[in-house]
Design goal:
This protein is of the alpha/beta class. The protein contains 12 helices and 6 strands. Strands 2-1-3-4-6-5 form a 6-stranded mixed β-sheet, sandwiched between helices.
Length: 262
């Protein structure tokens, strides 16, 4: 494993460059109904919602008034292709809305892209009257998923980018609830844990392009990492250790939902 670790650098800017590398993002990152249940329950009876870092529109409820905020032109273009409402071109640290404009706010797997998380959360609280719903990963639980064995370099990237759950709670206040999210076997939202029982998907560069952490790994390094898994699959090593996951209906890893109320 040393040959790929030698090139690992500390990440100074956690934001993924969606303008260059996000063209196929919407094809792989879609609303997973089982995960959406957690989100819609957390929103309760909120009628107006601001969705921060909205991307291509996954998990935006259709039965509420949603304003999407997305700084990437490539992501905004894909929203239109996906028949989603246009998004406002803005960043989380400078939202162009008055105080208490929305019942609720959402942020789905985006917080690790923000350069100043505390400032962003403060700004979200400013424009929100009630609950803030954030889907993120717990960096202290990333080792639960088997990719920590075959792709430790990717895990290193994730640990550098994802804020601790405690640090998020410290910004949002005491009135918070943290839920583990169970990921279904055939999850259609193509983040890494979505393929816990379908390891062959990681062999596809197109699939990996929908996972921002891989964008911090050079093409040469990716070849090394993917070859590790390919060898383990060919030899039967992966199935001897993790084959039960191919039929396991749900997986509880590091995915979390944070619900903060005022």
């Amino acid at each position: 494993m040393d040959e790929s670790k030698n090139d690992m650098k500390k990440i100074s800017n956690p934001s993924f460059n969606y303008e260059e590398d996000g063209l196929r993002y919407g094809a792989h990152r879609q609303t997973e109904p089982e995960i959406a249940k957690y989100i819609y329950e957390a929103l309760g009876d909120a009628n107006t919602v601001i969705n921060i870092g909205a991307g291509t529109g996954s998990y935006e409820p259709d039965d509420r008034f949603v304003i999407a905020v997305e700084p990437s032109a490539k992501m905004r273009e894909q929203r239109i292709i996906n028949n989603k409402n246009p998004a406002v071109n803005a960043t989380v640290d400078a939202l162009p809305f008055d105080d208490k404009s929305f019942d609720a706010a959402t942020a789905f797997l985006t917080i690790h892209h923000w350069p100043d998380i505390a400032k962003g959360l403060k700004e979200i609280r400013r424009v929100t009257r009630r609950q803030i719903v954030i889907m993120t990963y717990d960096p202290d639980a990333l080792h639960v998923f088997w990719n920590a064995k075959y792709f430790p370099e990717v895990i290193d990237v994730e640990r550098q980018r994802y804020p601790s759950i405690t640090s998020i709670l410290n910004c949002l206040g005491n009135n918070c609830l943290v839920k583990e999210i169970s990921v279904p076997l055939n999850c259609v939202d193509g983040f890494q844990e979505a393929f816990y029982g379908r390891p062959e998907y990681f062999l596809s560069k197109d699939v990996r392009s929908g996972m921002s952490a891989w964008g911090f790994i050079s093409s040469e390094q990716q070849d090394v990492l993917v070859n590790r898994l390919k060898i383990a699959l060919s030899s039967g090593e992966w199935d001897r250790s993790y084959g039960h996951l191919r039929t396991q209906p749900f997986f509880n890893g590091a995915l979390r939902l944070i619900i903060a109320r005022p």
